[in-house]
């Protein structure tokens, strides 16, 4: 527990149907847990975008609006709750609302990353209790991963999940939505299977079984959001330009590695280097990381935020990496020709030499 | 031999060559990181060239299409697996081998 007198409650805020109820619950809990102490509510949005992202201003704006709404709800609830118990106590003064946005300095991918960002905030501000919205799921639909409340429980702060008071109808609707996703994954994989099969009776059966397994296993991780169709098509077209370039890079670099490996003296000079890539967004970062790994001589060891840990086999492969050819190509695929002209990592001074550890 | 057959032989030989490079690299290179370079990439190229040879040799629409899918999936999954291995090694705190410390 905190050594100062205020009781501090952290509520992670995200887009969710049950946010309003969660706020009420947090206020209720605060009144019960600390009847006479001042209470500080920390409402925190863990940002999905990094501040350099083109969408960031819009998204941060809507996050702030949401936080303002939440602050108003606390006032409402505080008035009604304390008004009912003892009206004399000039209550809203007891409650302080603090709002913040965390995680704008890095990319948050998994529930674990979100939990880390929130726990860091909790440690800095001396939070006594975390109340999690039952529908809080900032990392998207990846329900194969551990849930937020489990991830948050890694910290030293007690975590509880607000009750889900929605009528049964809401639950049915939610189930119907996910059912349609299972179905669409099933249909797509069945069609894919059949398109490659010989259309014998047995193929229909094996296809059915395969598609069932695929949809059960993979539907929970299929992304909900997708880029607009036009953008996707443009990216695919640019990808068609990128692919031959990547193949050429792979071929040339493979010959270099073959030379190094087969040379009697084996002139390798491996080193782990770190560089900050000027790409943003899950898709672009993943594509770049995989391209780096595919290009022989460089291997992506770790990616956090925009910073890549790259294991490089030779000095030449490091040079190529810092010349930024791949990085430029990935930017070209995802953001078009204009963005390809950003200076190379070396020119930007984003190329870090050997990182200890 | 027809030109197509020459192409198939060339692809298969190149595939075998890079497969061999991968095997030699796996034996000769000093640590898990450098080995996963050889195991993932020379190997990927070797497998891809070999499958490309098969795709040419099959010369039927469906089998060739299947081979192309195979190529695509290898392109995506092999680097992912190599990254997973390297990342796991880093998480385990395995220090990368460097040229100035080893005598190998």
Automatic annotation (TrEMBL), chain A:
Q: What is this protein called?
A: Multisubunit sodium/proton antiporter, MrpE subunit (TC 2.A.63.1)
Q: Quote any Pfam family the record assigns.
A: MNHE
Q: Which UniProt keywords apply?
A: Cell membrane, Membrane, Transmembrane, Transmembrane helix
Membrane topology, as annotated: Multi-pass membrane protein
Transmembrane region(s): 182-199, 205-223
Q: Which InterPro entries has this protein been placed in? A: Cation_antiport_E, Rossmann-like_a/b/a_fold
PANTHER family for the chain:
NA(+)/H(+) ANTIPORTER SUBUNIT E1, NA(+)_H(+) ANTIPORTER SUBUNIT E1
- Which superkingdom is the protein from? Archaea
Q: Which organism is it from?
A: Halorubrum sodomense
Q: Please give the GO cellular component terms listed in this UniProt entry.
A: plasma membrane
Coarsely, its chief localization is membrane
Question: Which GO molecular function annotations are given, in alphabetical order?
Answer: monoatomic cation transmembrane transporter activity
Subcellular location per UniProt equals: Cell membrane
From TrEMBL, chain B:
Protein keywords: Membrane, Transmembrane, Transmembrane helix
Superkingdom, taxonomy of origin: Archaea
Q: Which InterPro entries match?
A: PhaG_MnhG_YufB
Instruction: Write out the transmembrane intervals.
Output: 47-73
Any single GO molecular-function term of the entry would be: sodium:proton antiporter activity
Q: Which Pfam families match?
A: PhaG_MnhG_YufB (PF03334)
Q: Does the keyword Metal-binding apply?
A: no
Q: What is this protein called?
A: Multisubunit sodium/proton antiporter, MrpG subunit (TC 2.A.63.1)
| Native organism | Halorubrum sodomense
């Amino acid at each position: 527990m905190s050594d100062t007198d205020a009781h501090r409650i952290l509520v992670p805020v995200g887009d969710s149907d049950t946010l309003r109820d969660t706020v009420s619950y947090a206020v209720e809990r605060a009144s019960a847990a600390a009847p006479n102490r001042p209470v500080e509510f920390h409402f925190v949005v863990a940002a999905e975008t990094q501040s350099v992202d083109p969408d960031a201003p819009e998204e941060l704006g809507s996050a702030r609006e949401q936080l303002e709404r939440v602050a108003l709800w606390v006032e409402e609830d505080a008035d009604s709750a304390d008004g009912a118990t003892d009206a004399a106590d000039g209550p809203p003064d007891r409650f302080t609302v603090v709002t913040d946005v965390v995680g704008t300095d890095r990319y948050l991918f998994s529930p674990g990353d979100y939990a880390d960002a929130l726990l860091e905030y909790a440690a800095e501000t001396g939070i006594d209790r975390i109340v999690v919205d039952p529908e809080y799921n900032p990392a998207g639909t990846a329900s194969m991963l551990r849930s937020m409340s489990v991830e948050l429980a890694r910290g030293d702060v007690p975590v509880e999940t607000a009750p889900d008071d929605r009528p049964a109808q809401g639950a049915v609707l939610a189930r119907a939505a996910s059912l349609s996703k299972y179905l669409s994954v099933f249909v797509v994989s069945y069609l894919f299977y059949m398109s490659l099969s010989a259309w014998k009776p047995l193929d229909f059966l094996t296809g059915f079984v395969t598609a069932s397994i695929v949809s059960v296993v993979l539907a929970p991780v299929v992304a909900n959001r997708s880029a607009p169709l036009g953008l996707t098509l443009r990216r695919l077209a640019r990808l068609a330009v990128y692919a031959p370039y990547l193949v050429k890079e792979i071929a040339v670099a493979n010959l270099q590695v073959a030379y190094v490996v087969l040379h009697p003296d084996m002139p390798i000079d491996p080193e782990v280097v770190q560089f900050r890539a000027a790409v943003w967004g899950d898709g672009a970062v993943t594509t770049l990381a995989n391209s780096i790994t595919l290009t022989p001589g460089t291997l992506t060891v770790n990616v956090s935020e925009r910073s890549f840990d790259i294991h490089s086999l030779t000095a030449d492969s490091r040079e190529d990496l810092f010349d930024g050819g791949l990085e430029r190509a990935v930017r070209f695929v995802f953001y078009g020709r204009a963005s390809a002209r950003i200076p190379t990592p070396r020119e930007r001074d984003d190329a870090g030499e050997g990182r200890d550890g | 031999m027809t030109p197509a057959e020459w192409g198939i032989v060339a692809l298969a030989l190149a595939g075998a060559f890079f497969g061999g490079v991968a095997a030699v690299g796996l034996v000769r290179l000093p640590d898990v990181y450098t080995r996963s370079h050889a195991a993932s990439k020379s190997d990927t190229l070797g497998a891809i060239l070999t499958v490309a040879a098969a795709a040419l040799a099959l010369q039927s629409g469906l089998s060739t299409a299947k081979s192309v899918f195979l190529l695509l999936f290898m392109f995506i999954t092999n680097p992912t697996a190599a990254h997973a291995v390297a990342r796991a090694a880093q998480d385990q705190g395995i220090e990368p081998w460097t040229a100035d410390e080893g005598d190998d």
